[in-house]
Design a protein that fits this description.
This protein is mainly alpha-helical. About 90% of the residues lie in helices and about 0% in strands.
């Protein structure tokens, strides 16, 4: 039945193109959301000079950049490139953990008290909302497309949302007169990010093993 076979092949091509477009759309939307959040946070950082907010900006900037290899992988419609992008996402999460740890230790050694605390708390809420939205976009698309890389990236954005909430907590603690709580929260968040790093690595590895099993 050549006709049926041809029709089935044509369907596979259509599915591939549809998957590519939806993947690119997901990473583009999440990049736009995080980009806006990062710009708004940068404005507040210029006012407050908060080290906690600087760390959050680095997290969000790194999270935004993970959209680039993922977008390229979906454009190429290459599952191998997608798996490599997943590894890049895991590496980015690990780097963000290292940055959080470095900033927290720096604040313990050289304490600094941020200013414009209301604006600082607002910037933390902006980061939380941006990352939660990006996480929902990426995780939802990742589950629909069976993309371990997108799911891992969604997990990354979700944990970055809690990093942003830590900025709000830091503002509250500083307002109460205990600036030492700021770096301690930073260290606690580092532990959470490292756990997400491990979880995301397992997700990406399971996706690769699933692909090899079905080849």
């Amino acid at each position: 039945m050549p006709g049926a076979h041809d029709g089935h092949s044509h369907g596979l091509v259509d599915d591939s193109i549809k998957r590519s477009r939806e993947g690119v759309r997901a990473v583009s939307y999440s990049l736009a959301v995080l980009g806006l959040a990062t710009v708004l946070q940068a404005v507040v950082f210029a006012l407050s000079h908060s080290i906690a907010l600087l760390a959050d900006l680095i997290h969000n900037g790194g999270d935004s950049l993970t959209a680039v290899p993922l977008g390229i992988a979906f454009l190429l419609r290459s599952e191998r490139a997608e798996r490599h992008a997943g590894l890049a996402v895991v590496a980015a999460i690990f780097v963000s953990a290292a940055v959080a740890a470095t900033e927290a230790i720096e604040r313990l050694v050289h304490p600094s008290t941020p200013t414009h605390l209301w604006a600082l708390a607002g910037a933390g809420l902006i980061g939380f909302a941006g990352n939660r939205t990006a996480a929902q976009i990426r995780t939802g698309a990742g589950r629909r497309l069976h993309s371990a890389a997108l799911i891992a990236d969604g997990n990354h954005a979700r944990v970055d949302a809690y990093v942003s909430l830590a900025v709000v907590a830091s503002a509250a603690i500083v307002a109460l007169g205990a600036p030492i709580g700021d770096p301690l929260i930073g260290l606690a968040i580092t532990v959470v990010i490292l756990r997400i790093t491990w979880s995301s690595w397992l997700t990406v590895r399971a996706g690769a093993e699933h692909h090899e099993h079905h080849q």
